[in-house]
């Protein structure tokens, strides 16, 4: 639960954690014992963090009542979010004489009494465009099926410099929050991935930003938004009526051919994916796979796995990999070579760059329909946000916001930039 005043905006990743079946069964047994309580009482916030334009209050998820309920409660200023599907609209730049138009994913209006459900792991931002204070109740279910981490709530921020919560983490079951996720990446790598200057890349990292994760939009936000509330029907999975049996089920499919690639770049490389949509047995195994190849110095755009862990095996070649969690330093930053195995936990951001031998890998993911959310490129969460959200979140100019959004038109695979534009640390 949280209180926010004036114009507020925040960017973060909601991490709804998941764990293995054995752990879930163990927790269920523990909960049966923990729920034998005779008295219940109202709970007060155990900690409050103040931000530039609001505050966040935390409840202790380790108290008996929370353990009985099987969930933790976290208060934060999150009134709405952009959805993950692409619904591009153009903003009217009334204050700009340039005549250029912004593109971003659909923005939804909400009002008192609304219930907003967000899929696990998606990025979102929110903005209070009213004249009154905004109070929200936010519930994180750390025992849902999309959570492949432990029972501690983790928040991954895309912008800002969130205050350290070491004290909160020690007794609230909330892992200590570091800086935004970009700060763990190398500045040159970010500049290469977004096709921007290193100065702009440093602004993404918000190293000297002390505003917290709820900030004030000084002139408000001007963007296209719906005038009426939309009602969307839930999409239900439909089958064709012919159920595949074990005897007729296919058990394999080749994904090593670049002609089969789901993503292809003439200068960058290719990626093929295999999931339960094209191999039915993967639904029972709850696994999927990805195979990719990068040419020299090409990158896989920084991204995170929304609903799965990833086990990466290097087939051949060499390269550099950075893995960043919700700390102010990378969880891994180093070279990889043929025969090595690397684990990328759910919601940890990762970037791969090929060395002079190129880089080929195969990834096994712990979800039969594993999804990624790119940080850079044409389908990225940065591209999907309005310019003015980026301007206020990162304290950058409109031109810098546009370069962040539009300098990379590629999808997932980013071809190497020319030497005149600057290269990151060489991989040899």
Explain what you see.
The protein has helices at residues 21-34, 64-69, 166-172, 187-194, 198-205, 281-285, 387-394, 398-406, and strands at residues 2-4, 9-14, 47-51, 54-58, 72-73, 89-91, 102-104, 123-127, 134-136, 139-140, 155-156, 263-265, 269-274, 288-294, 299-305, 310-324, 332-337, 341-344, 349-365, 372-374, 413-414. By secondary structure, the chain is an alpha+beta fold. The chain has two domains: 41-86 and 101-157 and 213-254, Jelly Rolls, CATH 2.60.120.10; 256-414, Jelly Rolls (Sandwich). A hairpin with a 7-residue loop joins strand 16 (310-324) and strand 17 (332-337).
Second-tier CATH architecture of the largest domain:
Sandwich
Q: How many helical stretches? A: 8
| Helicity level | 10-25%
Strand count, sense and barrel status of the largest sheet are: 10 strands, antiparallel
Low-confidence stretches: 1-43, 65-98, 164-172, 228-243, 419-428
Mean pLDDT equals 72
Number of strands: 21
What is the molecular shape? globular
Per CATH, the class of the largest domain reads Mainly Beta
Structural class: alpha+beta
Rg value = 22 Å
Share of residues in strands: 25-35%
Number of domains: 2
What gap, in angstroms, lies between the N and C termini?
A: 50 Å
What is the name of the CATH topology of the largest domain? Jelly Rolls
H and E order = EEHEEHEEEEEEEHHHEEHEEEEEEEHHE
CATH homologous superfamily of the largest domain - what is it?
Answer: Jelly Rolls
Give me some keywords for this one:
Jelly Rolls, 21 strands, RmlC_Cupin_sf, signal, three-stranded antiparallel sheet, ten-stranded antiparallel sheet, 428 residues, alpha+beta
């Amino acid at each position: 639960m949280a209180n926010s005043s004036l114009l507020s905006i925040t960017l973060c990743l909601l991490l709804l954690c998941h764990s293995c079946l054995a752990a879930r069964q163990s927790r269920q047994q523990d909960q049966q014992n923990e729920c034998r309580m005779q008295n219940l009482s109202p709970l007060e916030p155990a900690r409050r963090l103040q931000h530039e334009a609001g505050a966040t209050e935390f409840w202790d998820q380790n108290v008996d009542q929370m353990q009985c309920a099987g969930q933790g409660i976290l208060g934060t200023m999150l009134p709405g979010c952009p959805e993950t599907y692409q619904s591009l609209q153009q903003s009217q730049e009334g204050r700009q004489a340039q005549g250029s138009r912004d593109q971003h994913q659909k923005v939804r209006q909400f009002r008192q009494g609304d219930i907003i459900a967000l899929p696990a792991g998606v990025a979102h931002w929110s903005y209070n465009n009213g004249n009154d204070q905004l109070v929200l109740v936010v519930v994180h279910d750390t025992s849902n099926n999309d959570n492949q981490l432990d029972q501690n709530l983790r928040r991954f921020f895309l912008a800002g410099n969130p205050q350290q919560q070491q004290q909160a983490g020690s007794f609230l079951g909330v892992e200590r929050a570091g800086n935004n996720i970009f700060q763990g990446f190398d500045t040159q790598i970010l500049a290469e991935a977004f096709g921007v200057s290193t100065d702009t890349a440093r602004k993404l990292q918000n190293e000297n930003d002390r505003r917290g994760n709820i900030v004030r939009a000084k002139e408000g936000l001007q963007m296209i938004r719906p005038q009426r509330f939309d009602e969307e029907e839930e999409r239900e999975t439909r089958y064709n009526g012919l159920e595949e049996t074990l005897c007729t089920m296919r058990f394999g499919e080749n994904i090593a051919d670049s002609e089969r690639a789901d993503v292809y770049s003439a200068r960058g490389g290719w990626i093929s994916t295999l999931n339960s949509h094209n191999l039915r047995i993967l639904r029972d195994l709850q696994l999927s796979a990805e195979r990719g190849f990068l040419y020299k110095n090409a990158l896989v755009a920084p991204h995170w796995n929304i609903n799965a862990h990833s086990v990466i095996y290097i087939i051949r070649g060499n390269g550099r990999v950075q893995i960043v969690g919700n700390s102010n330093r990378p969880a891994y930053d180093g070279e990889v070579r043929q025969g090595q195995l690397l684990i990328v936990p759910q919601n940890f951001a990762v970037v791969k760059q090929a060395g002079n031998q190129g880089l080929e890998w195969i990834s096994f993911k712990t979800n039969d329909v594993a999804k990624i959310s790119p940080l850079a490129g044409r389908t990225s969460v940065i591209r999907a946000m309005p310019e003015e959200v980026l301007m206020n979140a990162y304290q950058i100019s409109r031109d810098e916001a546009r370069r962040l959004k539009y300098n990379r038109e590629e999808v997932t695979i980013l071809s190497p930039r020319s030497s005149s534009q600057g290269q990151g640390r060489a991989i040899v």
